[in-house]
Write a structure and sequence with these properties.
- The complex is a heterodimer of chains A (about 325) and B (about 450).
- With about 325 residues, chain A is mainly α.
- Chain A has one domain: Ammonium transporter fold (Orthogonal Bundle), CATH 1.10.3430.
- Chain A has twelve helices and no strands.
- The two termini of chain A are about 15 Å apart.
- In chain A, about 50% of the residues are buried.
- Chain B folds into two domains: about 150 residues, no CATH class; about 200 residues, Sufe protein. Chain: A (Alpha-Beta Complex).
- Chain B contains eight helices and 14 strands.
- In chain B, helix 2 crosses helix 8 and helix 6 crosses helix 7.
Chain lengths: ~325, ~450
């Protein structure tokens, strides 16, 4: 086992090194970054850079404070987490709001638990959820269309009036796939998410058990959920929800995480199904982003327990948790 | 740790993903944009059809909007051929009590007449509510009127209606007058005026140069070859012509004794040639002496003096103007008093009559008071004894600079309307909204009034 492997959570057993995994994630997120900058311009670029840099600085500061790092290793996970947070923010989010999310993610959910590879919950997910809960009006700036100026920067400083998101019912499939509608700056373009997901799969740095079971669960149970909620169901509604809710982004980049999700097949599938069920259960009661992210945090907490029971029940010593197919 | 080769491979893959991602994002954007545009247009139609039923709408993006926080959006409506039809202004105006009235105002693109009004309900307790019946009456009063608006109060005489002020006796046609001598820059001023339905509908003031190598004054000023203080001469000329079209009467331009005016924004030049020639055109219009007659008269004068017409003397320029200064024969156009002192000039029609010995038909409208209620003659500009910059006549109601409404000088007001009985405040609010539209358009279109 290489020296860097020690940085990963104890249930991760793969020959992929931490820098390899994080660089792969960064590369996979490039299309989403392109989407964000193309649609939202300069402020999206600044938000992304700000989140990434502030996450690195926060992590570095915490590590120096606790003397866990001596500076011989650059933690690429900070860049990934910062980027994930930025991509889950609305375009008109102030830097202060973004910084709040970054600091919570970096300090509370990552460094308190020992830093990269040791965190229980996904830091980006927790950070984004934190500002959604404590600062809901701060993450409702969805300037789009004619009111969306690609060179506008004021919204990075001054909190705008919250925007009401339009109904997505009239969106065409192409618009949904291309992300041509008001949403978070990096979660809407399904084409980009698919490119990133395929890349991660080819590179072997994502476990597909949870993402696939999560999406299948949502697709399977959504009709029941809608029948209970509205006493009606339409296939279009299912497509719109899957493509516009951020569920695909969560599936690809958060549920596929090697650190915080179960490593075994059975436990991974169980986690994905649980996450999907919780998402649909909470959907009528919580804000859209909360109903998508909160179940992920819940599943993160369950991960090591699920892995433990899965291992115990299987009674097999086969290292089936290996994901490196190369 | 990663090897150098692995790092290189990652960079190559990242670049590849960047290219693929960019291609997919941009490509899918343009493919899906058509549907997005349709949806936006559908939304516009649902909002604006009630005031301006256009084929498509486009939102105006202008820095001028920053000065009008009450305006939520301005849209231009286009017909199926892509030509602009009108403006739709979505705005919220505040009442004196601080309540908000949301309203859509549609204006004709060319004339800026109001073509549609619709209440755009503001939610909350602070909404200013106008009864539907009152709103319908307000629409009847305002639609078709040109902005800006002001109230026609009962105390004011009907003939104070700016919209109805016209010089009487104007006959339809194209009229022309030029100075018979050039100025120190060798330019000869001319004014061409078109009259339709008894109103001046088109007017042009320019000057051609007796040195034919020079361009006309407006073109020369735009090229920087003719410079005056303030705006370039062409712009000042345009502004002045626009102002005359608005007020219809050269006297209402309030020319001061030094030949300037204070009431036309951006005009600092000497407007005497324009006022004199415009009045000459008006007098020709009142007797039906049109441009062709004027040119024939000029030819007669030339023939009288030089035994040939303008064509034979090669005095016609490309625009058909007679490029000739009669400065060497001032006696034909100058009026002298008994002491042989020049006291004025006569026009081509009078010179022609003097040459032929024909007795001119009297202009029945010459020196007649348009308002005819106080016996005052305001056609004749008498600088002596009248206040500079104001209309002569002494009737305060006829003064141009008198008051303002919604920060718009009354001299700019295009239409006077009566408030709806028992709904004065409601009408006032809608008028305020319309005047706000005017102020925005004035800034947006850089109108010079």
């Amino acid at each position: 086992m290489s020296k860097d492997m020690k940085q990963l959570a104890p249930f991760i057993h793969t020959e992929k090194s931490a820098p390899y995994i994080y660089l792969t994630f960064l590369a996979a997120l490039v299309p989403c970054v392109v989407y964000a900058i193309f649609y939202y311009g300069l402020r999206a670029a600044i938000l992304i850079l700000f989140c990434m840099i502030s996450f690195v600085l926060s992590d570095t500061f915490c590590m120096r404070l606790t003397r866990r790092r001596t500076g011989d290793y650059f933690d690429l996970s900070s860049l990934v987490e910062g980027l994930l947070i930025a991509l889950m923010l609305p375009p008109d989010t102030t830097l202060l709001t973004a910084l709040t999310a970054v600091l919570f993610a970096s300090v509370v959910t990552k460094q308190v638990f020992g830093g990269a590879g040791s965190n229980i919950v996904n830091p980006a997910c927790a950070g984004r959820l934190f500002i959604e809960l404590v600062w809901p009006t701060g993450v409702q700036g969805f300037a789009y269309g004619e009111s969306n100026s690609k060179m506008a920067l004021l919204s990075l400083i001054v909190q705008k009036q919250p925007d009401t998101l339009p109904s997505y019912e009239h969106l065409s499939l192409l618009e949904l796939l291309s992300g041509n509608y008001p949403s978070m700056i990096g979660t809407a373009c399904i084409i980009c998410l698919m490119i990133g997901g395929i890349f991660l799969t080819l590179k072997g740095t994502i476990r597909l058990y949870s993402p696939v079971s999560y999406l299948i669960t949502i697709m399977a149970l959504y009709p029941i959920s809608m029948l209970i909620e509205t006493k009606s169901f339409s296939f279009d509604g299912l497509i719109i929800y899957i493509l516009s809710s951020g569920a695909v982004f969560v599936a690809v980049f958060i549920l596929g995480d090697l650190t915080t999700m179960p490593s075994r097949f059975a436990s991974g599938v169980f986690a994905g199904v649980t996450c999907g069920v919780l998402t649909l259960i909470t959907k009528p009661f919580l804000a859209p982003m909360v109903s998508v992210l909160a179940p992920v945090i819940a599943v993160n907490f369950m991960s090591f327990v699920l892995d433990f029971f899965s291992k115990t029940l299987s009674r097999r010593k086969i290292r089936s948790r290996e994901v490196d197919v190369s | 740790m990663m090897t150098h080769a692995q790092l290189k491979q990652f960079i190559a893959e990242a670049i590849l993903l960047l290219i693929v991602g960019a291609a997919m994002v941009i490509g899918s954007y343009f493919i899906s944009q058509d549907n997005a545009n349709k949806r936006v247009q559908n939304e516009y139609h649902s909002r604006f059809d009630v005031v301006l039923d256009s084929y498509s709408y486009e939102k105006v993006k202008s820095k001028a909007l920053n000065d009008f926080p009450e305006i939520k959006g301005v849209y231009i409506g286009y017909n199926a051929a892509g030509s602009p039809e009108g403006y739709v202004v979505d705005l919220t105006v505040k009442s004196p009590e601080g309540k908000d009235l949301g309203i859509l105002v549609a204006l004709d693109y060319e004339s800026t007449r109001i073509v549609g009004l619709s209440l755009n309900n503001v939610s909350g307790d602070n909404a200013y509510v106008i009864d539907e019946n009152n709103m319908n009456q307000i629409k009847d009063k305002l639609i078709g009127r040109q902005i800006p608006l002001a109230f026609l109060t009962e105390e004011k005489p009907d003939d104070d209606d700016t919209e109805n002020i016209t010089v009487p006796g104007l006959r339809d046609g194209v009229y022309y007058a030029q100075r018979l001598y050039d100025d120190r820059n060798k330019y000869i001023d001319y004014v061409e005026m078109e009259v339709q339905n008894g109103m001046i509908t088109k007017i042009k003031w320019d000057a051609f140069c007796t040195d034919r190598t020079n361009k006309d004054r407006s073109e020369a000023s735009l090229r920087g070859a003719y410079e005056i203080s303030g705006l370039d001469w062409a712009t000042q000329s345009y502004n002045l012509c626009h102002a005359l079209l608005e007020c219809q009467d050269p006297d209402r331009l309030a020319m001061k004794s030094n030949g300037t005016t204070d009431i036309v924004d951006g005009v600092t030049c000497d407007i005497r040639p324009f006022v004199d020639l415009a009045k000459e055109c008006i007098s020709y219009s009142q007797v039906g002496y049109n441009k062709d007659s004027y040119m024939a008269g000029l030819n007669m004068i030339l023939f009288h003096l030089y035994q040939d017409n303008a064509y034979g003397l090669e005095l016609l320029n490309d625009d058909g103007h007679v490029v000739f200064s009669f400065e060497e024969t001032p006696e034909i156009y100058t009026i002298y008093n008994e002491q042989e002192v020049a006291i004025g000039f006569i026009g081509v029609r009078q010179i022609e009559a003097n040459i032929t010995g024909r007795v001119l038909e009297e202009n029945p409208y010459e020196n007649k008071n348009r308002y005819s209620n106080d016996g005052q003659d305001i056609n004749a500009v008498d600088y002596d004894g009248s206040e500079d910059g104001l209309n002569s006549g002494g009737n305060v109601d006829n003064q141009i600079i008198s008051d303002s409404i919604d920060d718009i000088p009354m001299s700019e007001v295009a239409s006077l309307v009566e408030p709806v009985p028992d709904a004065y405040d409601d009408t006032r609010m809608v008028v305020k909204a319309c005047n706000t539209c005017y102020k925005f358009l004035k800034e947006y279109l850089n109108w010079k009034v």
